[in-house]
């Protein structure tokens, strides 16, 4: 089959910079099939039966972790969760030793989140057998989030090439924004960034297809989609952010600002939302919002990733 | 089939006030079949294979959570646990958004506990697909506990109509007592309450079949069963409770007081017990105690509930 | 079949003092078969399908808990985890009541860790149906760790009888050392202990096959294997341990000291390691180290134990 000419079997999922457009395309088309499973009465396929997946999270996250766990279970895999907070395996133990330990237990895939940029790539140098799936490494990457954004756009717009997407907020520290840059640019999407001046990566403005705006209104103008990033409240304490009220007024997405975008503009948010801050409740639950869909697409994309890297093919 | 004339498929389990006597009867008869599974050598049926259940607990509880998890697994369902304490999905995220998130992931049932009365009912207004099962909402209701109490009584007494049950302790704040009021009254059981005066809902004394007693001895007299509620130690701090020693002396159930009830009186307790306070060890582990059985019946009742609301029928 | 003449069905796993050499042999030979499952593409056998296992950990441990959970899942069992830290089932509830509660839920095996010596044995007096597996009770025993040490030695050396093993560190408080004493002595292994003087159980020096050394070099001399125990940093605070730097200098295992042992000496460590303290990184990751293997063997040994006590036989 043409489509399966590319195999991703054994490929580590570190960041979309290491994905070819063809590989991204394969994930998206596989995810489309996977999404139908989530809607079935019997949400269980034997694709990954006998495969074992461990999630190792050094940073708290239930959304992403639950999403991977659910994806694995729908596919028939065994999933074991290790949380750094409650775990002696990771308390005072080096990352290397923890990785060697879970490898020794026989896991086929390690889904990991770590505060340190590059932690997932480091993991690939430590282990031999398991596939590493980066579920967030500091401000570096969150590839499955980038892929679910692409999947959501594709489902709604029918194509990716030539779309204009505005990404708003703390771009500098966002692994979601960084994953968008790699993923969306590869698929021919034009990116428009806006946010607090101190949190904009100005150096990006030299890149083709990326525009940094001073005013949020200019970024939104004629956008096919707007991704609203979550305010990281801890950055506010560091004095890099204006107050909540100011933020909502200057950068918050509300119906008024939405009107500047295309009529069929799509609203994305990685969640969890600070409603009334970066996004108004009207927009969050309005007609343009694809935020709940993103969560479901996240499960579908993770089912696709797990299937492709663990089996190479699709057997839905 | 006569018995399956009623279908509970898709019914939210919010409180026993929303259950007809026929529905309660259906749960109890289904639970009886389910209990046989727990005693099998192979405790696994495919009834809920391909169904996915999430537990979302905003208040700590392992007894109830583990019981639902175990019930789901015996029935072949996938179960994912989300605890508010360790979870970013619920930290700072609105209940609405958390519910929409887990709905999007494809779960068929959401088993939830929340400190706010009415939280489970609110959940039914937020989500479309999943069935909501209330595992405790503040002082309002804990329907599966009410049902396991009924199941335990029925198993021992052979009938429910006309039984006399004494419920002792902090009635005012107890969701267990409230679930008894709805459940037991519907099945024709007479309720006798006693406890610290400040914690008795006097207004209930107007209800038919409910008697509020000043002295614990009067409530116990000739009782078929005594349900001893757990002391909530945090209420003690609020000055609503006497000291531990006083409580044990005035309200604690011991062998002496037991003698006032019927010869075959059954002792119930929702657990975990404060032995030496509301209940003496002799009573807790004595011949009359059904406390350990209640736990097992809790698994059976939850298996019945999950089966009935997710499939409508019984396929053990 | 000769080998299955011994049945361990229903046997509680409390400590290796209660295992006959034949039983230890049966576990080791079963574990050998189990280890092949971990290397299969489809790591899933139906041996324990329909069996349910609960882990109840009063002390934090992810390594051991995850290992048992993974072992159970590879064998097709259902596994439910209860952690004391986050659990109301165990908070303020007596151990007896918690055990009765999980028994009532229908679990076939309770894997438990508790700070109190004898807790697992106590559990066998409380419950009727479930098998108790001790995953560590204070300083008393950690039998599955003792067994995985034996398995690792047997795999590398081809036999156990007559081996010389050095065990280094805080012998007095170590349940691992204690499990070695029972397990290794039964299999004819000679034990040589060394460590801080305040932490050596001098009374053991009267036992046949056990030698207590003043100098670590004497213990290591001609050893077939060296087990390096983990420093318990909390003991250091109690003034029983020298400083980190001193400890590394006097008791740490490095390449220089390794040279005193046999050429094919095997390095064991129960993990997690304090590298640079009790063990140098060169030794930990060097040619002689079997530390990562021990983790895998731990899964195999636990698969064997679960299979033998729950079914009596081997059906890989």
TrEMBL record, chains A, B, C:
Pathway(s) annotated for this protein in UniProt: Pyrimidine metabolism; UMP biosynthesis via de novo pathway; (S)-dihydroorotate from bicarbonate: step 2/3
Protein name as annotated: Aspartate carbamoyltransferase
Cross-referenced HAMAP family: Asp_carb_tr (MF_00001)
Keywords on record: Pyrimidine biosynthesis, Transferase
Source species, domain of life: Bacteria
Xref: PROSITE patterns: CARBAMOYLTRANSFERASE
GO biological process: 'de novo' pyrimidine nucleobase biosynthetic process; 'de novo' UMP biosynthetic process; amino acid metabolic process
Gene name of this polypeptide: pyrB
Domain Aspartate/ornithine carbamoyltransferase Asp/Orn-binding, first and last residues per copy: 161-308
Binding site for carbamoyl phosphate: 63-64, 113, 142, 145, 271-272
Quaternary structure annotation from Swiss-Prot or TrEMBL: Heterododecamer (2C3:3R2) of six catalytic PyrB chains organized as two trimers (C3), and six regulatory PyrI chains organized as three dimers (R2).
Enzyme Commission (EC) number: 2.1.3.2
Entries under PANTHER family matching the protein: ASPARTATE CARBAMOYLTRANSFERASE, ORNITHINE CARBAMOYLTRANSFERASE, MITOCHONDRIAL
GO molecular function: amino acid binding; aspartate carbamoyltransferase activity
All copies of domain Aspartate/ornithine carbamoyltransferase carbamoyl-P binding, residue ranges: 11-155
Residues binding L-aspartate, per UniProt: 91, 175, 230
Organism ancestry: Bacteria, Bacillati, Bacillota, Negativicutes, Selenomonadales
SUPFAM superfamilies, per database record: Aspartate/ornithine carbamoyltransferase
Reaction catalyzed: carbamoyl phosphate + L-aspartate = N-carbamoyl-L-aspartate + phosphate + H(+)
Entry GO CC: cytosol
Family according to the record: Belongs to the aspartate/ornithine carbamoyltransferase superfamily. ATCase family.
Main function: Catalyzes the condensation of carbamoyl phosphate and aspartate to form carbamoyl aspartate and inorganic phosphate, the committed step in the de novo pyrimidine nucleotide biosynthesis pathway.
């Amino acid at each position: 089959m043409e489509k399966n000419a590319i195999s991703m079997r054994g490929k580590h999922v570190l960041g979309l910079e290491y994905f070819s457009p063809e590989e991204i395309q394969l994930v998206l088309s596989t995810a489309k099939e996977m999404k139908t499973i989530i809607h079935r009465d019997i949400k269980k396929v034997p694709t990954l039966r006998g495969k074992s997946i461990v999630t190792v999270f050094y940073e708290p996250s239930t959304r992403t972790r639950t999403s991977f766990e659910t994806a694995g279970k729908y596919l028939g895999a065994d999933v074991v969760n290790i949380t750094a907070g409650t775990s002696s395996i990771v308390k005072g133990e080096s990352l290397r030793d923890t990785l060697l330990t879970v490898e020794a237990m026989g896991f086929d895939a390690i889904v990991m989140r770590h505060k340190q940029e590059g932690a997932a790539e480091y993991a690939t140098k430590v282990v031999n057998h398991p596939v590493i799936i980066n579920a967030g490494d500091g401000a570096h990457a969150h590839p499955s989030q980038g892929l679910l954004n692409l999947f959501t756009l594709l489902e709604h717009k029918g194509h990716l090439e030539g779309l204009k997407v505005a990404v708003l907020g703390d771009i500098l520290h966002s692994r979601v924004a960084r994953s968008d840059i790699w993923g969306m640019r590869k698929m021919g999407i034009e990116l428009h960034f806006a946010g607090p001046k101190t949190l904009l990566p100005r150096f990006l403005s030299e890149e083709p297809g990326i525009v940094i705006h001073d005013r949020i209104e200019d970024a939104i103008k004629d956008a096919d989609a707007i991704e609203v990033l979550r305010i990281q409240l801890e950055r506010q304490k560091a004095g890099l952010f204006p107050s909540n009220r100011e933020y909502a007024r200057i950068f918050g997405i509300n119906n008024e600002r939405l009107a500047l975008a295309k009529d069929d503009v799509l609203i994305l948010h990685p969640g969890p939302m600070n409603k009334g801050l970066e996004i108004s409740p009207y927009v969050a639950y309005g007609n343009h919002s694809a935020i709940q869909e993103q969560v479901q697409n996240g499960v579908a994309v993770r089912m696709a990733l797990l299937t492709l890297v663990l089996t190479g093919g699709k057997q839905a």
